[in-house]
Design brief:
The chain has a 6-stranded mixed beta sheet. It is an alpha/beta fold and 210 residues long. The chain contains 6 helices and 6 strands. It is globular, with a radius of gyration of 17 Å.
């Protein structure tokens, strides 16, 4: 684990997905009291299986398991794409829609195949994110954020990850993969969930210093 300033408060992002870790780091820039770590800093830690029945359950399990195991404050999320016309798929299986070891590309290919029969009006979709904050003493806060839009039939853009190259947020003409990280981080489902736990994050400093 890397060195950190002695006056800082360690906060672990419970993920080894560097795209996701980078998003969290960008959102946490407004809270300089934190030294942001990720699960990459704890190579011997084995996360629990994502066996929950909802995004919320998975996020809470990830946060509480890591906080107890690592004896750290932990922020975790579970998120994915929901397509109502596909009965909510990919949903909580978004990261493994095409199989347990599927790549983002594999998942997008399966999604496009699954949507071939859908008309434009049926291509409504939304990203959903739940973020959980936990300390070794237990869960402190969890919150939900969503971002609604539509899905294209062809990919556009080289940025982002997951299904970003297919997703166009309402009132935008670009996919998440075309918007760029700074814009996406202001309007995303993860940002909306993050804003709802911001007060809880800010209170950690008070807990540590009082």
């Amino acid at each position: 684990m890397r060195n950190h300033p002695p006056s800082s408060i360690q906060l672990v992002v419970a993920s080894r997905n560097m795209h996701k870790v980078r998003e969290f780091r960008a959102m946490l820039k407004s809270l300089p009291q934190f030294d942001i770590l990720s699960l990459c800093d704890f190579p011997n830690y084995a996360p629990p299986p994502e066996s929950g029945a909802s995004f919320e359950e998975n996020a809470v399990v990830k946060a509480t398991h890591a906080s107890v195991s690592l004896n750290q404050w932990v922020i975790a999320d579970d998120s994915g794409l929901v397509v109502p016309a596909l009965n909510g798929a990919p949903g909580i299986l978004s990261a493994r829609f095409a199989g347990q070891d599927a790549t983002d590309f594999d998942n997008r290919v399966k999604l496009l195949e699954s949507m071939r029969h859908l008309l434009d009006d049926d291509r409504h979709a939304y990203y959903e994110c739940w973020i959980a904050l936990a300390s070794p003493s237990g869960l402190k806060k969890s919150a939900r954020g969503t971002c609604e839009g539509k899905l294209l039939s062809i990919e556009r853009g080289g940025g982002g990850f997951g299904y970003d190259s297919l997703f166009v947020k309402h009132e935008y003409n670009k996919t998440f993969a075309e918007l760029g990280e700074s814009v996406k981080n202001r309007v995303s489902h993860r940002r909306k969930a993050f804003d709802k736990i911001l007060t809880s994050l800010e209170s950690i400093e008070l807990i540590q210093t009082t």
